[in-house]
Design goal:
The structure is a homodimer of 580-residue chains. The first copy, chain A, is an alpha+beta fold. The first copy, chain A, contains 15 helices and 31 strands.
């Protein structure tokens, strides 16, 4: 076997699943966020790939293969050549033409659709491929969970109208639910931001784990689930005039009090009594965001509001132009585009006076300042569910898949249209749907391990049985082990055979680390007694089998686990689909 | 089905196989040399991939997956970061680090070997992957035969010594022979230049076709086969003193005679009576190559002689420095590194005098000038075989695979070593072995088509049977066709079902173009008569089957073709291996 197991993981692998990926010789880094799959990891990855293929084929998917080097012209048509630049790997040929290693392949498939699809009679259509994506992420970490190159299954649906897209989207939602059930991963469909994809509606599939980078809000009372980037909340009801004094706003001295915390302490008021005003720059525009002092800005919501532009903190020139003073910025009289978060209520607030060492008291939104009202704040644990008012609970999660209703976002920009039955030309209605192989591989480990190593579901295990010969130098042991391996393979069992000249301790530790569902031990004592030892990875007890018929017994045990696991997955998928 | 067949291929597709790739909706170009595989092409490609996988697994291959974005540091260790630049796609991340889309993956696998291999006890080892390669070829043309991105299976062998490498190389030679036999392609193992790979010995697998870009020399009398880049010849035997006059060389006027052709005509002597001296620059060095007037320089042989440096024509400064005059260059008195081709015999020649409008007669190699003697000329049709003296015949070919004995070329540069049984540290002895999927796909078409379209071998056909319903609007026809499709699929036959509302002419033309081995027609007349029509793509006659039992009959016919084809492939591979 090419690939050495490691007693200790390198120091930069801090999460358990990252450590196991390296220790069990599944993958090796080449550079930050760039990994090779070693043979064991590749076997798991190919099984994941095949499960995905089967489920996408089942909903009518047609597999294709689109390249990794893709011409800039297509990305320029959609506007993503520049928009994706911060995370893009680009290249040039020797004639000076530009190419991108795709972030995803929307433009490419839209291009093929406009070439191949002429008439409504060809629709609906589902196409997909497995292909490398390149994303120059600033902080790639956590092993295969966040990398800079990864293979994704991305499918694309083409429909005549939004009703067709809804059906395609539902079909993918169901297919993904089945995929994750078969992979042995408990994934939750969560409302998400459409982000760099454009389009209207999106869901992510999230597996709950502290290793995850995403923050999620799940309602404790109803099925509402959303990514923090998208989560809303029900605002507390306030009587329109509640707590609104008739008094005019007035300045007062606040020397050196530049933060909400300092103001809280100094004035003895809660954070919610203040307005937090953030001065930002998005492209050529200066934007001021006004939030209650106890709420944080949600950058994803703001980006969506700003048409996809990323806002950065304003510079000194921006402060001068807007008439704001750092530490004492407030919305009153500010010369900027003012965005007022929806959670700013009708009450009186303390706000920056736009003068050094001064604030204003009794500032009334709508009386003393105006702005466009939008939801741009972070929802948090304990907030009220926007659907039912129940309690939102915060989780950490890993995104293992996502689905997007693109609508006509790409087809209009790129001129992908079809002739409708009535003879009119209409834009194709599209969806896109992604699952990353490596991230799922590691997430399966997150959900399937113990203190000794990985405990693979049999559907994705690198091998089904791990045969250990002890000691391999003993001719009788060796002969018995090799016969057993051959018999098992004849019976359709995938076998990893450990014929290294190592101690029982080393071999058992490796078997537990690599985590094949069954360990089979052929030892000198067992051979003498006409026995073979069988141990399930997830069970504490081993079983002694008669050597005669052992292969048949083990093959039956393997089949039983395959069947049980498959039935459990079917049942779990059916339950999840019924709930959704 | 996503992908439209085309009546006419675009004008830039000039070869038959390129036209068929486009017309049968197998692939579509995105830019020069960059193609997407449509669903039909992807099905063929995946079957090719699986045949390769099975044969490499059979010789002990372990599959891995190495990325497309690879760090410059590894390429710098081998020296190929610069050497491959003329054909490389490079990229940078946002921290300014350099990466290459691999030309091949030698450096990457050598890197993994030095990390994973410690001891001789782990060797030998065979690893491989299927991965995209990037090659910015100047003239990519001919469809999938010469592209700028393509998926290659590349395997790498690691051995303790050259005897081990010889065994690994033989195993790959046999595996490749089996692969091509199974793909339905007649490939010849041909001695080849090691080119950009480095290393010692190399073979290419060449399919003979006028569509090919390579020139090959095969001996008509013995198994000698070589690429022009590498081919040698047996030189005619000449008595050491034959034709050598005792007279001294002497200048004479040749006003305006700057080419061999002009000299031939003017002096009435054959081209072989002259010396052709080419002044070249390779890096910082000026090199003069001296050839008989009737022989051409072989750039690949010269590049190998110059340690991999590519020679270009000398500039004016080089001529001045060397003391040569364009059109009248000769080896006598020239100030340059002089390479004398082996085919320059001991006779007296006419050569340039290094003065304008003058040549020298009676120039004797070894008396009047000296230089290093090397084989740097093109061998041609009719030359004598270097092994047996038989007649060499020139062919055109497409290279569909190649294998290289790398030896310790990479392992020494990159420090990939193992601990030998005697405790010494030794470099791992390596081989590398490539097969491109797309090029094989198109070469199968080169070898399997007629005037109506493709005639796929069943092992790689996109589907085994193509069911045509005529007319599809007839409910009875539709029901019968759909029942037949379902029955065939249940019996394990891969079916393409044409349910388009089109004429018999269109549908039959498409079936012939796409080229599935069997066409099954369900027509109104046949349904009424209780019949189904079966026609093999490679046969002129159709057969009328009873509708009852038609599926079983067709499935049996499919199985028979599968079996016959497999037996033929086995036999062909065995014969080829026996010959080699």
């Amino acid at each position: 076997m090419f690939g050495r197991t490691l007693r200790e993981a390198p120091a930069d692998a801090v999460t358990t699943s990252h450590q196991l990926v390296l220790r069990a010789a599944l993958a090796r880094p080449l550079a930050t966020g760039l990994y090779s799959l070693l043979p064991l990891g590749n076997r798991v990855s190919r099984k994941i790939e095949q499960i995905i293929r089967e489920e996408i084929d089942r909903i009518g998917g047609q597999e294709m293969k689109v390249p990794v080097i893709t011409p800039a012209e297509l990305w320029q048509e959609s506007g993503r050549w520049e928009a994706l630049e911060p995370n893009a790997f680009r290249t040039k040929d020797h004639n000076g033409r530009d190419y991108m290693i795709p972030y995803t392949h929307e433009e490419l498939f839209t291009n093929h659709a406009r070439q191949e699809i002429v008439s409504y009679r060809q629709l609906p259509m589902v196409v997909y491929h497995f292909q490398a994506k390149g994303r120059d992420e600033e902080r790639s970490r956590g092993g295969l969970l966040r990398v800079r190159e990864f293979v994704m299954k991305d499918s694309y649906t083409f429909d005549v109208d939004h009703a067709g897209l809804d059906r395609a989207y539902e079909a993918h939602l169901a297919a993904y639910t089945r995929i994750f059930a078969r992979l042995g991963v408990r994934a939750h469909a969560v409302e998400s931001d459409t982000g760099a994809m454009g389009g209207d509606v999106a869901h992510e599939f999230q597996v709950l784990t502290d290793e995850g980078e995403d923050t999620l809000l799940f309602c404790a009372a109803c099925p509402y689930k959303a990514n923090l980037e998208r989560a809303a909340r029900r605002l507390p009801e306030v009587a329109p005039t509640a707590g609104v004094p008739a008094v005019a706003m007035a300045p007062f001295a606040t020397p050196g009090l530049t933060s909400i915390e300092q103001l809280e302490t100094s004035l003895g008021l809660p954070a919610a009594a203040f307005l937090k005003t953030l001065l930002l720059r998005a492209g050529d525009e200066v934007v001021a965001v006004v939030l209650p002092g106890d709420r944080d800005l949600n950058h994803a919501k703001l980006r969506k509001l700003l048409g996809g532009r990323q806002a950065k903190f304003a510079n000194d020139g921006d402060f001068d132009a807007a008439g704001g003073v750092p530490g004492f910025v407030g919305p009153v009289g500010l010369r900027a585009r003012i965005v007022v978060d929806v959670s700013v209520g009708p009450g009186a607030y303390v706000a920056g006076a736009n003068r050094k060492d001064a604030h204003l008291r009794d500032v009334l939104p709508g009386r003393d300042f105006h702005g466009e009202i939008a939801d741009v704040h972070d929802v948090r644990d304990g907030d009220a569910c926007p659907r039912c008012g129940g309690r939102l609970v915060q989780h950490r999660g890993v995104e293992v898949g996502n689905i997007f209703k693109l609508g006509t976002y790409y087809s209009e920009k790129m001129g992908a249209s079809y002739l409708a039955e009535d003879g009119t030309k209409r834009p194709i209605v599209m969806g896109s749907y992604g699952i990353g192989l490596g991230r799922n591989l590691q997430t399966i480990i997150v959900e399937n391990h113990d203190e000794r190593g990985i405990t693979w579901p049999i559907a994705v295990a690198p091998f089904e049985a791990h045969v250990v010969a002890l000691p391999v130098k003993d001719a009788g042991v060796r002969a018995a082990a090799e016969r057993l391996v051959a018999d098992l393979e004849t019976l359709g069992v995938e076998v990893l055979y450990d014929d290294r000249d190592d101690s029982a301790g080393v071999k058992f530790a490796d078997a537990d680390l690599i985590g094949c569902p069954f360990r089979v031990t052929v030892s000198k004592r067992n051979v003498a007694a006409g026995k073979v030892e069988l141990k399930a990875r997830r069970s504490a007890e081993a079983e002694l089998l008669e050597a005669a018929g052992a292969a048949e017994h083990i093959a039956a045990a393997v089949r039983a686990v395959r069947d049980t696991e498959r039935a459990t997955a079917e049942e779990r998928a059916a339950r999840a689909t019924a709930r959704a």
